[in-house]
Design brief:
This protein is an alpha/beta fold and about 300 residues long. Helices cover about 20% and strands about 25% of the residues. The strands form 3 sheets. Strands 3, 4, 5, 6, 7, 14 and 15 form a 7-stranded mixed β-sheet that branches. Helix 4 links the parallel strand 9 and strand 10 (about 190-195). About 45% of the residues are buried. Bound molecules: NADP nicotinamide-adenine-dinucleotide phosphate.
Length: about 300
């Protein structure tokens, strides 16, 4: 089968489109024929070797943490899934990914694919959906009536946090560049704001807020200023660097390290099929163009969530 792999850490040019052996499923594993994967910022960090100490991977490595595809073969001791099922998964970060024709998936990571959208579009959901779910409900504990500021709200994770927060009954202020404003309004955000003037402080944007959820890579000083946007006793949850705590005011901080969870992914899929969250895909490209995708990501040229179509 065809797969995109790298044999050493480095720039985008370490990625190679190669013929590799199709894997066979072991106990508890499912072989899935890939329809699509998608690009996530962490793919860039893994390829560059920036996570090599905390996330030991075996080289050569196939990138692509997201998966949408069709079950092709079951390993021993797999129950509840059939050959031909359309599925989605967040793949383990330390094993072969979805930039290939076929990939092995632990059965516990699988969820049924949404029935209401094209299978390839569903490849944009797993990692960002789980990151949004775990940030919104596990870290920020969003609840009805709670005020929340989402910084970087128009991005891949932020768009889903905004929709989950609106769906949960929170009062959502969404912050991002003006190009995302119409889409953020369409999600039901109560207030849509341009990038924060961190020197102006929370009152300028109707804060402080019971929860601040951050998805923007800010310098340490910027992250420290975000603490001021959290009300006394509130929480700052971040996917992009820790916001410092303010112990005197009871402001706690929580950072995400997203994990695969088939049950949470099934709940996200149910929300997609119920029309309660929408997946925003900015571009589709063939997986054979992954070098170009990584180059564009590194240069800040990706237009947003990019789905990578299987060979
Ligand atoms: N630790 C984890 O487990 C985990 C999991 C998932 C993601 N992450 C991290 O979370 C972050 C967000 O991921 P993502 O996939 O959602 O990225 P993304 O799609 O690039 O979203 C970032 C958003 O922030 C916007 N933005 C940039 N500068 C801004 C500013 N000063 N003020 C307000 N908005 C601004 C961007 O606008 P443009 O469209 O103009 O760029 C974009 O809409 C990344 O750093 C990613 O690595 C971490």
């Amino acid at each position: 089968m065809k797969a995109m792999r790298f044999h050493e850490f480095g720039g985008a040019d370490v990625l190679r489109y190669e013929d590799v052996e199709r894997p066979r499923p072991g106990a508890g594993q499912v072989l899935v024929q890939v329809a699509a994967t998608s690009f996530n910022p962490v793919d860039d960090h893994i390829r560059a070797g920036a996570l090599a100490k905390m996330l030991p991977i075996t080289l050569p490595y196939v990138p692509g943490i997201d998966l949408a595809g069709t079950v092709a073969e079951l390993g021993p001791k797999v129950e509840g899934v059939q050959v031909g099922d359309r599925v989605v998964a967040m793949l383990p970060l330390d094993s072969a990914g979805g930039a290939a024709e076929y990939v092995l998936v632990p059965a516990a990571s699988l969820a049924p694919a949404p029935g209401s959208i094209e299978l390839v579009e569903a490849a944009a959901l797993p990692l960002t959906g789980l990151a949004a779910w775990q940030t919104a409900f596990e870290l920020a504990a969003l609840a009805p009536g709670q005020s929340v500021l989402v910084n970087g709200a128009g991005g891949a994770v932020g768009s889903l946090v905004v929709q989950l927060a609106v769906d949960a009954g929170a009062h959502v202020s969404a912050v991002d560049v003006p190009g995302h404003a119409d889409r953020l309004r369409s999600y039901g955000a109560h207030r849509v704001l341009g990038p924060l003037d961190l020197a102006a402080g929370p009152a300028a944007v109707g804060g402080p807020f019971q929860a601040v959820v951050n998805h923007v890579r800010l310098p340490e000083e910027g992250l420290a200023r975000l603490t001021d946007y959290v009300a006394d006793g509130g929480v700052a949850a971040s996917t992009a660097g820790a916001v410092p705590e303010a112990h005197g005011r009871g402001v706690r901080s929580a950072s995400l390290w997203v994990r695969s969870d088939g049950a949470q992914l099934s709940e996200l899929v149910a929300k997609v099929d119920a029309g309660r969250i929408r997946i925003h895909v900015a571009a589709h490209r063939p997986v054979s163009d992954l070098v170009g995708v990584h180059e564009d990501a590194g240069a800040g040229r990706l237009p947003g969530k990019t789905v990578l179509l299987a060979p």
